[in-house]
Amino acid sequence: MSDIAEARAMARRLRAALAARDMAVLHAFALELAAGQPAFPDWSAASAAPSREGEAPAGEPASVARAEGAVRFLQTIPILRIFDEARAREFYCGFLGFSVQFEHRFAPDLPLYMEVARSGVRLHLSEHHGDASPGSTLFVPMQGVRELHRELLARHYNYNRPGLETLPWGEQVEVHDPFGNRIRFCKQSQDAGG
């Protein structure tokens, strides 16, 4: 079976599994998630790529063939604690430019759990007491940190005017969300492995 057919089947299974838990996602979003599993950045790249059966995963020697059940970490998605849905949306969507990918509540009056994403970064935001501690720090390696800095300043967000720092490991913009969490967006220098 080709990677494209596998990704489509995985997307259908994912939507069915989430629907069974009262979490509806768009088919296009399920395709994006499934496309990332075989190491494609998005659905467009997965559907355009030739089949890669028998290839080793990216970053591994060619002698390591893709095996069913082999351990392979695909991505880290941090969970950040939030306390106020409106302020979280204002900061993550309005100020940082993320888009909501899904939202879930066990009942209308219970805490929110949602995913936001932008340019390959996915974050889970949770009002649930046990999911995370406020005051976390995320380090996000990226390209275009100067452009991000200009974009953020142009938004005139009342609670955050981040600077652009040149540090030994690269150029960095640090923002603070309304809940005490920090995100450090960094264009790493060549010396720092970026």
TrEMBL record:
Family: Belongs to the bleomycin resistance protein family.
Keyword terms: Antibiotic resistance
Name under which the protein is recorded: Bleomycin resistance protein
Superkingdom classification of source: Bacteria
UniProt organism field: Camelimonas fluminis
Cross-referenced PROSITE patterns: VOC
Domain named VOC: residues: 72-188
Coiled-coil region list: none
Keyword hit for Cell membrane: no
